[in-house]
Amino acid sequence: MLTRRFLPDTPLLDCFSAQYLELGSPNNPLSSVSGFSYCLIGPNSSDHWASCYGPVFSFYLSILEVERVKMAYNSLVRSVLISCNQRLPQSSSLYHFPILLRHRPTHRRHPYLWPLSLRYSSTQFVQESAQGDAEGERGRLNVVNILEERGLLESLTSDSLRSACSDPGLPALRVYCGFDPTAESLHLGNLLGIIVLSWFLRCGHKVVALVGGATARVGDPSGKSLERPELDLLALDRNVSGISTTISRILGRNHGAKCFSILNNYDWWKDVKLLDFLKDVGKFARMGVMMSKESVRKRLESEQGMSYTEFTYQLLQGYDFLRLFRDEEVSVQIGGSDQWGNITAGTDLIRRILQAEGAYGLTFPLLLKSDGTKFGKSEDGAIWLSPSLLSPYQFYQYLFSVPDSDVVRFLKILTFLSMEEIAQIERDMQGPGYVPNTAQRRLAEEVTLFVHGEVGLDEARKATEALRPGAETKLDWKIIEAIAEDVPSCFLPYDNVMNISLLDLSVSIGLLESKSAARRLLKQGGLYLNNSRVDSEAKKIEADDIVDGKVILLSAGKKNKMIVRIS
C-alpha cells in the first residue's frame, strides 16, 4: 500500500509524481511496484503532456484538510471517481481514503490537462465520498435500489423518490430519522435507522438525526399495546444526551464529524403554544385519516384504549417533518415499518400547509428473526449500543450466536459488505469444508466494528479469545472484566491466595469437586491458569499469576471457568 501526504493546495497531479515522469521511466517511483495497473499524468521535462494509462489505479492518500474536489474532464481523463474506504481509520484530523483515476487509453497529447486542486474538508469529503464512486458519466448511485436489494426497503410514499435519488441534475437529498429518547442508549433494533442513514451518506446525500426530546414526553403509540410510562425530566435529559452521543460516535467515526446534524425537536416545540398549534396545524388534520392509522385503530380496539395525548403524537411527528422540510431543506423521512402512519402524517401536513410537493417517506422492515421474534433482545434485556451498558464483547457474542437460518439476511441488512461477497459467504456455507460459524464471525466483526470501532472490535476479539483455554492472547484486567458477566466469579483476600496450591484453590472456589478430580484433569491436560495449561501438581499461586494485581482466571476444561477477584 502506497501512501502520500500533502497539504490542501497541493495539485492532485503532484501527489502522483513530483517529477511528472512518463511510463517506463527508470525514475518512476511506481515502475518497480508489481501487481499494479496505474496511471501517471503530468508534464515531463520537455513541457509536453504525457499519460501513462492502465485500467484502474487505486492510490491511497492521506488528507489533512481538503475543501473541495474540482473535476476536470478531457480526452485523457474521463472522470475522477472518489470512493470511501468502508473501514475509514482516523488519527487526529488525518483521514485515509482511496482515490480512483479512471480514464480511457489514449496516445494523444493534450495541452489543456488541468491539475485537479483539492479543496474539500476531510469530514465533508467522507460524507460525499460514496457519491463520487457512483458518479461520473452515470450519475449518483441509487440508494433506494441498494436498500431494496439488501432487504432494507419496506415502503415508499412515492416511487418518485427512486428517481430523485439518482438524478445527477438534482441536488443531494437531505434525509432524517427520528430517535425517541425512551432509554439512555439506543439498542440493536434502532441500529437499522443509523445503517439506512449511512447508506444515504455513502450515496452522497446529507442526513439529520432527530432526537425527540419533546415527543418522548408524549410517547409514540406505534407498535405498543400500552401507553408508555412518563419520564421525569432529569431522566429525559440524560437519555437525550446519551442517544446523541451514541449517534455522533457511530456516524462520526464512519463518515466524519461534520457529515451529519443531530437536532432535538424540543428546541422548537418549547416555543409552540397550544392555541397556535390548533390554529396552524390542527385545522389541517383530517380526523378520518388520523383514526384510520393502524397504530390508532389497534389501540382503540384494545381494552386499554388510547389517550388523547397519544392520539396527537402523529401530528407532533408530522409537524417535525414540516419544520425540517421548511427550515432545514429535509425532504425525506425514514423509519421502521411501524412509523408509516407518522411519516405519512408529515407528508400530508407539508402538502396541505405548505402547498409543497417533494416530501417523501421511506420505511424499512423491523429487525426480526426468522421465527418472527425481535432481534436485538436477549433474556437479560436489550442489546444496547452504548459500551457503558453492554460491553463490545457481549455485543459481539450476541451477533456471533445468530443461527445459520438468519446470518445471510443479517449480513445484508446490518453490514456494508458487497452483495457479491455475501453471496460467496452463502455458497461457502453450503459447500464442503465450511468451518461452522465463519459467517457469524464475519457478521459479528462487521457490526461490532461499525458500532464500536477498531478499539471495541479488538476488545471483543481478545475477550472471545480469552474464553478459549490455551489461547495465546495476553490477558489483562480489562479483557477479563469484559467476560465477567459470562463467567462465575468469587472474591478472595490476597493473603488467602498467595502460595496456595492450584489444586486446593480450584476445589475451594468450587471449580472442581475434589482434589482427586483436579489431579485427574491436570493429568489429562485440562487445567488452566490464566489460559496457560498447568502440568505440575506442585504449582502454587505466585504474585505474577495475579493479572494486573486484581484477578485470576481458572479453567477446568473448555467450558468451566472461574474468575477469582483479589481483594
From TrEMBL:
GO terms for molecular function: ATP binding; RNA binding; tyrosine-tRNA ligase activity. Coiled coil: none annotated. The keyword Cell division does not apply. The keyword ATP-binding applies. Residues 501-558 form the RNA-binding S4 domain. Belongs to the class-I aminoacyl-tRNA synthetase family. This is Tyrosine--tRNA ligase. It comes from Abeliophyllum distichum.
